[in-house]
Amino acid sequence: MGISDANVRFALEATVEPETIARARSHALEIGADPVSPPVGAQCAVIAAASAALNIVEIGTGAGVSGLWLLHGSPRAVLTTIDKEPEHLALARQAFTDARVPAARARFITGRASDVLPRMNEASYDVVLVDADPDGVIEYVEHGLRLVRPGGTVLVPRVLCGGAVADPVRRDPVTSAYRSLIQEIQSSPAVIGALSIVGEGLLQLTTVAEPRV
Fold first, then answer.
1. Three-class SS state of 136
2. What is the DSSP string of 66-126?
3. Which residue in 3, 36, 64, 101 is deepest, having the highest Cβ count within 10 Å?
């Protein structure tokens, strides 16, 4: 095992996942919803906490794992979560109930993100998590940057595509989209970006009120 693999395994084993989130993860795996890994979830929680987030949008509900991590980091936040799969939303509702998340702190929207996001208010959210159809990742990130307030953060898990992004031979549309996102958007003066390679990868994009010096 290489140093990189050992680090990944250590990070996974060292992350303590709350019991309610672990149960939601088990349900997600049963239906093939592919939840974010515990290290990525924990990073999302830290960012939500550091942002003192009160309004969060999640694009791609799954079975509620990432949403619970976000609310774990910011217990006073209201989460709006969007998914086109009613089964996923139903499981997420149950996971939130099991975690004793008050109904007023979670808003579930059934629909395609491409239809829902244009109707949402811009500069109104502290954190936007983009974990939906990878074919639309560029569009969703653009919406996310529109929705967050100055100083707000857009989070994009799975951005490394299982190692495909680092492989120069891979040039399929999804891999190319993630690669372009990582390489190009971070150079924008409108955001401060960072790429974490723990777990499946997490791209973090924080908007700034004024261009960087």
1. helix
2. HHHHHHHH-TT-EEEEEES-HHHHHHHHHHHHHTT--GGGEEEEES-HHHHGGGSPTT-EE
3. 64
Q: Please give the average per-residue pLDDT across 99-118, as a whole number.
A: 95
Q: Using alpha carbons, select from 93, 114, 89 the residue that is nearest to residue 105.
A: 93
179: domain CATH number is: 3.40.50.150
| Whether pTM exceeds 0.70 | yes
Indicate the range of 30-34, 49-53, 126-130 predicted with least confidence: 30-34
**pLDDT value for 213:** 55
Any domain includes 110:
yes
DSSP annotation of 37 reads P
Distance of CA 99 to the CA centre of its chain: 19
Q: Range of 153's domain?
A: 3-207
Q: Is the pLDDT of residue 43 over 70?
A: yes
Dihedral pair phi/psi, residue 201, rounded to 5°: 95, 145
Q: Are 131 and 158 in contact (CB under 8 A)?
A: yes
Report the candidate in 103, 106, 43 with the shortest Cα–Cα distance to residue 69.
43
Q: Number of structural domains, the chain?
A: 1
- Would you state the structure tokens that stand for residue 64, as one six-digit string? 């509620």
| Cβ neighbours of 174 (radius 10 Å) | 16
- Which amino acid is located at 134 in the chain? P
Sequence length of the chain is 213
